[in-house]
C-alpha cells in the first residue's frame, strides 16, 4: 500500500492543480445556466446571494473533497472507506455519478463541436434557423460522429496522464478561455441595435438588467426560490459530489497550501460564471429585449444565441466561432475531469493500468452516449420526471445524477465529516503544512448543520415535494 501511494502521480505545482480544478468547475453550467438564473432571479440579487454561498457553502464542500483526496491519496471509489471503515458505499455512490454523467456530457460536447464547425465554415445563418437544433439532434449519424470526436479527445487527454494530459492541457486551455470570455464580454457590452419596430437597445442597458438588483414584487417565497436556485447552481458549478475533486485532490502534494488553492479555484469559477452573464445577457437583450433570456441550457446556447449571432451580420460569424470555441474549451476540461474520476477509481480499485482503465471507461461512455443520441430519434420517448420536467434519455441521466445522486453524496459526506470522522480530520489535513485554515468555525457550522439542510431541501425539490 505504502509503495503504491508513493508511486501516485501528482500535479507539478499549485498552478497545475488550480487550473485543472478550475477547468473542471468552469463548464457548461457556468455558461448556459448561470446567466439565465441571474436574469430570471432579479439580476444583482441572485449575484449577491450566489457570492455569499460561494464563500460559505461552496468553500466548505470544496475544501472537504479536496482534503479527503489529498489525505487518503485515493480516488473517490476507495477514498471514503479510508476516512472511515464501512463507508465504501459512499465511495461507490460518488464513483457512479461521473460514470453516469460522462456519456451525456460528451453528447452535448459533440453538439458544441457541431456549432463551432457551423460558424467556422460560415454556416452560422443556417444554424440560426428555426428547427435547426432539433433537426440536428434527431439525425441518426452526425450527432454520433461529433460525440465520438469529443469523447475521443477527452479519452486521449486522460490517457496521457495527470501531468502530460490533464495538467498541460489545462495550462494551455484555461488562459485562452479567459481571454475569449473577456473579449466577448467587452464586445457584448458595446453592442447597439435598432429593431424593425424602430426600438434601439444597447448592450450597456442589458448589462444593467443583469447586475442591478431588482426587488420589484419580491416576496418571501420568491426569495427562497432565488436562494435554492443559487444553491443548486453553485453545487453543480464547483464540481463537488461527483468524485472529481477527491480524485484531483489526491494528486496534490502535501506541502501545498490547500486553502489558497481552493480560494483561487472558486474565484476562477465565479469569475467565468459572472462574465458569462456579461457575454450573454447584454447581447441577447440588445437583439431580443428582456424576453430573449427566457430559456437556459440547450435552448439558450443552441437556439437563442445563434439567432443573436446571426443578427450581428458579418461579425456574428466571428463572434459565434469564438463563442463556441470558448464553450468547447470549457466543456472539454470538465469532461476530462469526469473521466479522470472514473479512470482513477478503476485504477485504484482494480490495480489496472491507466490505459486499460481508459479503454473500459471509453467503452462504457460510448455505449451510454449511443443511447443518449438514439434518445432523440429511434428510442425517442417523452416522460415527466418527479420534479415536473419533461425528459428524454439525456434528461433522465441528468436528473438521476444531478438532482438525486449528487445531493445525496453531499449529504452523506456532510454526515461523515461533520458527525462521524469530525471536521477536525479535514482541518488538520488543510493545516498539515503549517498554514492556518481560515473560516474554521464557519466550516464546522456548514458541515454539521447548514449544508446538510441545504441538501435535504435540494432532494425534496428533486422529488417534487417542495
Ligand atoms: N462544473 C461544471 C459546470 O459548471 C459541470 C460539470 C463538471 C459537470 C464536470 C459534470 C462534470 O458546467
Give structural attributes.
two-stranded antiparallel ribbon, two-stranded antiparallel sheet, 21 helices, Hydantoin permease, binds phenylalanine, 466 residues, mainly alpha
Describe this structure in words.
By secondary structure, this protein is mainly alpha-helical. It has a single domain (2-462), classed as Hydantoin permease. 76% of the residues lie in helices and 2% in strands. It has helices at 2-7, 14-25, 28-32, 34-40, 44-72, 76-83, 88-120, 124-127, 132-138, 142-160, 162-189, 203-211, 220-237, 244-249, 258-288, 297-311, 314-350, 354-374, 393-420, 423-430, 440-462; strands spanning 192-194, 200-202, 383-384, 390-391. The strands form 2 sheets. Strands 1-2 form a two-stranded antiparallel sheet. The protein has a two-stranded antiparallel ribbon with strand order 3-4. A hairpin with a 5-residue loop joins strand 3 and strand 4. Helix 2 crosses helix 11 (162-189), helix 4 (34-40) packs across helix 15 and helix 5 runs antiparallel to helix 15. It is globular, with a radius of gyration of 21 Å. Residues 24-25, 27-30, 101, 105, 236-237, 239, 242, 334, 337-338 line the site of phenylalanine.
Amino acid at each position: 500500500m505504502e509503495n503504491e501511494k508513493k508511486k501516485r502521480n501528482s500535479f507539478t505545482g499549485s498552478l497545475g492543480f488550480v487550473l485543472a480544478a478550475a477547468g473542471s468547475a468552469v463548464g457548461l453550467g457556468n455558461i448556459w445556466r448561470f446567466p439565465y438564473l441571474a436574469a430570471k432571479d432579479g439580476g444583482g440579487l441572485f449575484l449577491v446571494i450566489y457570492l455569499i454561498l460561494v464563500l460559505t457553502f461552496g468553500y466548505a464542500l470544496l475544501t472537504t473533497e479536496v482534503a479527503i483526496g489529498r489525505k487518503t491519496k485515493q480516488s473517490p471509489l476507495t477514498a471514503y472507506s479510508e476516512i472511515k471503515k464501512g463507508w465504501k458505499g459512499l465511495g461507490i455512490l460518488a464513483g457512479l455519478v461521473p460514470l453516469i454523467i460522462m456519456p451525456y456530457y460528451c453528447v452535448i460536447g459533440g453538439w458544441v463541436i457541431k456549432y463551432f464547425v457551423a460558424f467556422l465554415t460560415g454556416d452560422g445563418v443556417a444554424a440560426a434557423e428555426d428547427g435547426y437544433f432539433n433537426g440536428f439532434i434527431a439525425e441518426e449519424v452526425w450527432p454520433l460522429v461529433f460525440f465520438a470526436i469529443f469523447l475521443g479527445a477527452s479519452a486521449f487527454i486522460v490517457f496521457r496522464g495527470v501531468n502530460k494530459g490533464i495538467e498541460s492541457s489545462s495550462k494551455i486551455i484555461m488562459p485562452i478561455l479567459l481571454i475569449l470570455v473577456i473579449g466577448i464580454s467587452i464586445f457584448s457590452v458595446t453592442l447597439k441595435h435598432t429593431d424593425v419596430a424602430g426600438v434601439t437597445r444597447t448592450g450597456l442597458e442589458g448589462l444593467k438588467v443583469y447586475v442591478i438588483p431588482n426587488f420589484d414584487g419580491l416576496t418571501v417565497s420568491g426569495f427562497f426560490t432565488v436562494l435554492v436556485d443559487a444553491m443548486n447552481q453553485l453545487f453543480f458549478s464547483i464540481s463537488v459530489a461527483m468524485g472529481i475533486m477527491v480524485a484531483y485532490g489526491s494528486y496534490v502534494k502535501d506541502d501545498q497550501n490547500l486553502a489558497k488553492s481552493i480560494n483561487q479555484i472558486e474565484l476562477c469559477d465565479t469569475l467565468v460564471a459572472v462574465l458569462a452573464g456579461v457575454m450573454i445577457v447584454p447581447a441577447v437583450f440588445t437583439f431580443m429585449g428582456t424576453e430573449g433570456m427566457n430559456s437556459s441550457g440547450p435552448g439558450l446556447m443552441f437556439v437563442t444565441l445563434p439567432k443573436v449571432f446571426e443578427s450581428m451580420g458579418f461579425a456574428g460569424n466571428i463572434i459565434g466561432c469564438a463563442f463556441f470555441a470558448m464553450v468547447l474549451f470549457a466543456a472539454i476540461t470538465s469532461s476530462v475531469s469526469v473521466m479522470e474520476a472514473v479512470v482513477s477509481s478503476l485504477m485504484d480499485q482494480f490495480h489496472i493500468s491507466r490505459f486499460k482503465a481508459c479503454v473500459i471507461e471509453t467503452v462504457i461512455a460510448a455505449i451510454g452516449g449511443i443511447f443518449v443520441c438514439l434518445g432523440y430519434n429511434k428510442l425517442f420517448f417523452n416522460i415527466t420526471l418527479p420534479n415536473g420536467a419533461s425528459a428524454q434519455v439525456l434528461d433522465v441521466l441528468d436528473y438521476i445524477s444531478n438532482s438525486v445522486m449528487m445531493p445525496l453524496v453531499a449529504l452523506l459526506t456532510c454526515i461523515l465529516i461533520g458527525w462521524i470522522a469530525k471536521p477536525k480530520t479535514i482541518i488538520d489535513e488543510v493545516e498539515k503544512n503549517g498554514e492556518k485554515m481560515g473560516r474554521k468555525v464557519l466550516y464546522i457550522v456548514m458541515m454539521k448543520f447548514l449544508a446538510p439542510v441545504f441538501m435535504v431541501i435540494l432532494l425534496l425539490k428533486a422529488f417534487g415535494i417542495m
